[in-house]
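Standup notes
- DV: blocked on the single-chain target, sequence here:
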Amino acid sequence: MRAAVGLMLSHGGGVVEPSMSRPDYEQSALHHSCLLVLLRGVGPSRARILQRAFEKVRRVSHIRVNDSSGNPRTIWIRFVHDHPVEHNDWGDFQTHRRLLGLVTIGKFENQTELNELCRQHESLKVRYGSTLYESRAIFFGPDETPLETIGEVLASPPAGGRRLQDEFTTPSNFKAQAFFYREQDSCADLESRIGDFASALFWVLESRRLERSREKADKLSLLQAPFEKRDFVGLDMESRNNRKRCVGRVMKNLADLSLQAGLVEDALSLYHNANETLRSVGDSLWVGATEEGLCAASAMLLYPQMREIETLHRNSSLQEAGTSPLKNTPEKWRASDATKKISASEATTNNVDGTQQSQQHQQQRVTSNSSSCSSVSSLVTTATNSSASDTPTTSSSSTSTISAAPIPGHQRNGELPGNILKAEEITNYYRKAIINYSKYRHAATIETEAALKASRICIEQNRPLDVAMFLQNILYINLSMSEAERVKRFEIITELYQQIGYQRKAAFFQRLAALKHVQQGSQAPDWNQSYRLMLGSFTGYLLCLDPLEVLENAAGWPALQIDLVQSLITAARRLGHSALATRHMTFLLQTQWDNMSPTEQSEMAVQLQNLSAQCEGSPVPLVLENGTVIPPANLTDLPYCLDLQVKDLPAHLRPQRIKVAKADSGPFLFTPIHFNSVDRRDKKKDKNKIAFQWVQNDLSEVTVRLRNPLPFELAVTDMRLLSNGVVFESLPQTIVLQPHVPTYVALHGTPIEPGQLDLQGYSTHTLGVKSNCRLKHMRGRSFPPNYLVDVIPALPRISVKTSLPQTATFSNMNSADIVVTSASLTLYNGESSSCTITITNESTTLPLEHLEVNINSNVEQELQKKIFRVDEEALKAKLPVPPQSSIEIIVDVYAEADFVCPQPPASVHSSAAAGDYGAASLTHYSNVSTSGHASLPSRVSSPQHRRHEPQNSSFRSTFSGGQSSLAALSLQPGGGRGAGPSSLGSQYSQHIEAQVRLKYSGGDALTAGYCRQCAVSFNLELLPSAQITSWDVLPAEVPSQFYLVLDISNLTAQEMSLNYTDTKNILIEAEESCRVPIPVDRCSLEQVVAARAAEVAENLERELCFRTQLLSFNDALSKLCSIHIAERVKINWLLTGTDIQGIASLRGIVLSQSMVDLTAVSPLEWAISLQETPVQPHSEIVCTVGQSSLLSIQLANTSLQPLRNLVLSIKFYQDYLNGMENYNLETRVAISGPNRIAIPLLKKQEQKQHTCSVIFFTPGRFKASIECTSTPQKQSEQPASLLSRSCPVETENAGQSVMFSSSYDEQQAHVWKFIPPIEVTVVEQ
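- DV (later): unblocked, structure below
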């Protein structure tokens, strides 16, 4: 009933009752056993100088002393920097709240400052004098001499030094013990002195404990909490309940003193007894205190590892790989005490021993069959069940490893006390204590601290739900406190939530604390603390300071994250850190761009632009004053990169490998077996490896396609390439991007040294922020992480000019992109000219050491060599070319053309070809003959008779295998094919496109095997000049020559002067033609023999190579004769009135078999005599009418092969010298004997002779045609063809089958005539 009255009175209104000013948020259950000592700095603030002393004092966390009975005890010390005086009033309720010791530390320079330090020390003693046992003062003087203590006499003072207290003295009213040290003293004995100070506190405490234990029950006074004094006014203190109340409270107070004195087992028994006594009288407040004491004493035995020193934590902003809160969610289940906590030997670095160890307490093990907690300790419990006590008890699994971490300096053997609370009982007892505290309004602070202690115990027990329950209960405690205390409460709750892995709850309270710092109405808002707390809450919102990790994980709640970052930006702005505000706004845009609407994106971009106007953003880390590093944030997607392409150098500047002729290393062996084929074929090529190379000191290009996602123009300035590897000089680029329009941007740079260049992206400066946009950070695009480009050594650069005018358009040939200039030239067929190419080495340091000239064109290689020619020896003599110097290259150009009109053999069947020989044709031919050559044989004027003689046919033969390739080189587009006589006046021009390609190199690149290639586009126009439309071969006056009769047309628009021999010229009007005879030496027998040997050798090679088609000797001989004529006949032409001149070549002329027989020297050697007189060329023979004349003909085979099927024939005719020849002389001449003799075989060097008689019936001039013909074994009638001035039409009969034979005469019909014909003058008798 008294308790109920006290409860009602405690909740009654009226006078303000004394209560604790603020909770001690750092207090834990183990602090119940600690002696509370105030460690305070006095005097001027010299934290850096005194920090060493503070650290040494704090190292004395406990001492070991032997009590009066010789038993060792471990006494724990707790140093605090501030302690409200009113908390001492609660010392009777809980003795660990009573301040027992005072240590001050100060620095002085003179006596005045020392007096002030002493005064402040004494004022603190007075303030806490009601509970203070001992005090010490530590003073640092100005010099570096060893420390001394007041009243201490040194046996041997240090030589050359004075004691500090000899120089300075303390005031007379200063009664505390002081330690003097020089400023730079190492304070080696300070820890031992603090240990002595703690030992002194212990003995005073021990004496008080003994006094309390010896008090008699009838003389006990009622211990009260500060607010309980009015509750017992007017009550009978001698009643039974009150007497029990007094006993119970004193017993509880004695338990507190025993716990502080190191008697944990005695304290447990006293707590249990006090709990039972106080519960019987309904003393709820003190029952809660005994329950809390039981929990504290049990925790000391179960969780001694909780006594660990604070360690320095590294900067949380410098997160290593794998430690990011976004990558690894914090564990909700902590490891057990055996694996998580550090050993006590590591935690305590300095122990002060009072006496020697005498005996060790036995260490108890508590077994458990409970599986309520999933932790490592539960496994240890199962393993240790065999060593448990005989009577098993039920306990939490977290208590099974209590022997794993003994109290430092105190080892126990044996079992734990039987009255110790088990793990789950500790939680229940704390819950009961909190319930009892909650009944008293003035105990709200005690209730809050109890909840915090319970939370820390539950953390050790791996009970996160219980922790959350106790922390949630703190929020409902009605505790009057300042805003700073509220913030502190939220921070402590945040820390505990973080320890159990409740990151989001921790972030909520942390942000709540941040808002409390700057809430509306606050007189001194602390934006610095608000910023710090909001920055620390990033983890709970699944954010981190590195935007790359945020984008990679893409976790969390975007709306909350955006709101948090915006609050952080506001705090940074209020702090005046414009750089931080800009950085966080950049972070917001980079990480939350996809989670914002277009309107929000635009608004945020404008805000960033306004912030960056105060402080420009840069891609470098920002380091805060507390050491936190803010990683750089880059606007990777602003502007948005759609594509990035590494461009090759311009084609004429691209490096190429110098091709080296490979040495013949033997035959190539092919095998279908693939060794290591999987490794070789499945090996993936590096996607980021660029196939081409860049050149040192050459401007290179990367093309980027960008899109502006904002609704307004976006200016991007100072855009550069980001590179790694070799030194690379990037050039800035500026561009203004229109909204939502893809735009190409060319970024340029120059590699300064050779090697491998790593292109990682580009940098931008937009919205006032400099950003490094790397390819590996661009999400949603298939970009490689980088591009690797090989940079080769520097190559020289050249400029090219020509002496010819440029063309309007460049070449359409392959590799036209390497053309740097052009040249155009117009020539007539057969004309020669030259082009001077000037090459200037534009390099400033590199010489031009290698220069190679190649010509490519749209004509065949053989013809190209005839048109273009470069003197390579003269070019090599000009190398090397020094920097800034020039050389000239002469390119000789000859207008090579096929001057011979193509004339297929099928044209011999054309009636048009036969009809061309009319009167006009004969008249024209006669005029040419008369004026051009007086000795031309007169039978040329009789085409009617020659029309039926096959040996006089004029056509281009295609029987020869070598002629078809020559005809293919014709440049005439129509080739004269299908054109009649009217086509002579047609204009045919040819266009040749060529490239003069220059490969050049020098310096280190030449050594590495690289060069460049550029080209000059050459446009050559060939105009028709002269053309040979028809040709024939006629016998000459001497056996060593023949006449080549040509029909030559002037296809130009000007008069042409034609020089066809050394002394003969003729003028041809424009688009007119003429016929000219040209005497040519016959092909010698030695050349024929050589051709025959070459034919035999080639046929032998063909047989060895299993080729079925063999060459005939006729092919070789025909080709030989064609070349013979082309080499000896050069027709020079000149356009009158100009200096345009050229040469018309007969290259490619095709000869029929009869022409070949006249061109080559005859294989037969003739010996003819008439009237027993040898006939000499051009000799005059006179015969008489009616007189028989003996004609003797002797043949000798001078060839290398036998001749078969020979027919010797003798014909007499009359030549009227007007083109008419009369062979009908039956009434004028008679031959006695056969005039046709067959010779089946004429062996090599064999001779045949034939003799007959000739009788002339009428006088006159007669000629004798003596010829020997050979026919093939299977004769095929060959149609005759006359000399034609036209280009006949090609028909379907494009060729004939030819019978091949090894004999000279078995291939085709041959005609060998005795030249010149025998002229006989017949006179009358």
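- Follow-up: The mean pLDDT is 78.
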